[in-house]
Amino acid sequence: MTEARKGVLAIVAASVTWGLSSLYYKALAEVPPLEMLSHRTAWSAVFFALVLLAQGRAGEVRALAARPRQWRVLAVSAVLIAVNWLVFIHAVQVGHALQASLGYYVFPLLAAVLGYFAFGERLNRVQMLAFGLAAFAVVLLAVGLGALPWTALTLAASFGGYGIIKRQVPLGPVVSVFVETALLAPLALVFLWGAHAGAWADTDGRYGGVFGRDLATSLLLLFAGPLTGVPLVLFSYAARRLPYATVGLIQYLNPTVQFGIAVLVFGEAFTVWHAVAFPLIWAGLALYSWDGWRR
Questions:
Q1: H or E segment and range at residue 102
Q2: pTM more than 0.85
Q3: Residues 6+ apart with CB under 8 A from 106
Q4: For the chain, domain boundaries
């Protein structure tokens, strides 16, 4: 098997895993959002630490001690990815998985615009048309549903900002995400201690402390680490073997799987406004992807 084919299989596996993750968070709907986020953060830190130790790369983390600016940058990116994870978990639990998929469809187009403002990257006419279609679709959806799709916009903006920040850190994804989760882990552990002690409720008013109540739920919570880490390792593997345009195109599998699960499995309402807005966004993505592939 060629290296390119291995790369394609890796990015397909990563994208499908990300897409299917909504099933995981729905299965753990009994776990309040902040508690779920805390488990995801803590177990991800453990998973990435084990990966780095197995690869003999712990020295890369120690080398960061002499670069305080990178720690500050990673602290900002850690907050952004925590917001992204929390909003996604909450969206799936409260029946907004369809809107979450919209956010990950919009993200590549928003990222191009953020690149223009942050790095002065030029937008050609095709890219501007693609973003215009997506923006028009969001406006239509807001008018039709009577409210802005805040979940989708927050997911797209937080992930877009995360990407902007990460471009300023010359580290591989495994090292950088380990540092991010390690920075967040003390907060996660404090929150979990309070949740189990009954000291405070979650964002939705529920009292949690679910871990340890039964074996199945505890094992599922533990699985949050590999579920976060394995796709990222696969993505990193693919990115080293494939043109980035190919990686970007295949990544649309993620929101597509999310979309299918939201409508076909969760039974979320797909209104006439969704039927107009989503094709407009897909058309914008098709233009954007064609332009990127052509160039």
A1: helix 97-119
A2: yes
A3: 134, 138, 152, 153, 156, 281
A4: 3-294
